[in-house]
Amino acid sequence: MKIIICLFVIFGLIFADQQLIDEVNSKQNLWIAGQTKFSSWSQDEIVAMLGAKMKPGRTVRESEVVFDVPDSYDFDQDQAACKGEILDQGKCGSCWTFGTATSFTKRRCKLTQDYIAFSEQDLVSCDKDCDGCNGGFPFDACQWVEEHGLVKSSCYPYTSGNGNSGWCKSKCVDGEDWKTYKMKSGSCKSYVNENEIQNTIYQDGPVCGTMIVYEDFMKYTGGVYKHISGEMLGGHAITIIGWGEDNGTKYWKVQNSWGEKWGEDGYFRILRGTDECGIEAGADAGIPEI
Fold first, then answer.
1. I want to staple 198 with a disulfide (CB 3.0 to 4.6 A). Which of 21, 69, 144, 168 is the partner?
2. Which of 95, 130, 208, 277 is catalytic?
3. What is the domain range of residue 156?
4. Is residue 8 a part of any domain in this protein?
5. What is the pLDDT of residue 53?
């Protein structure tokens, strides 16, 4: 009897899943919804993974200065030696650490042309201003890097994919010396509109962005995402690496932390210029200390 009940539940989830996919694909042609690795996840598991906390009152604000930026830009193409790997946060609400560490990694690499991947686990386990796998504020994480710095990923590799935040360590697992790399003191800043975000990416490198995630985003397989249907699930931190246009539709190019088999080889594109899902209301980054 229990097996039969479980089968009914599974088939019910698959049916609801396909209904949402069909609805999204019938209402627009900017992006394609389909089955993803999250089709087998429960909603509770998905919500637990969305760990970006957002400050109240976030809003897009106009700048006094308008920066001159190109029509399109891709950091990973412009700075190919700084591209790095697409990572997977697993079942831990640690997206805020991936957005912070990845943007810091790429920004420092642009300055030095020396690629060093920085540790997400250092933030997950040691940043007590945030809450590990239960989520954190990206801006607070940036300030933590200003004060404490991050070690290399090879020194302190990611182990929280199972949802366990772990204990803070101060000794490298690979026998290296414990060396931290910091942001310049006071350099962490929030960029709060399209043009500001473009300018800082173009001048200094990628930023840690945050966005509201709805049910339909979990079905994203490619194209320029725009929310169509489904309830809000939570906040998510990502790394915005560039922008462009696709048949007249403006988009941000974004690196995610859900593995390279998700989306467009680990990346996604999202509508630009309309604060889609709150992505333009606050992107955070600092300047690496060299």
1. 69
2. 95
3. 2-285
4. yes
5. 95
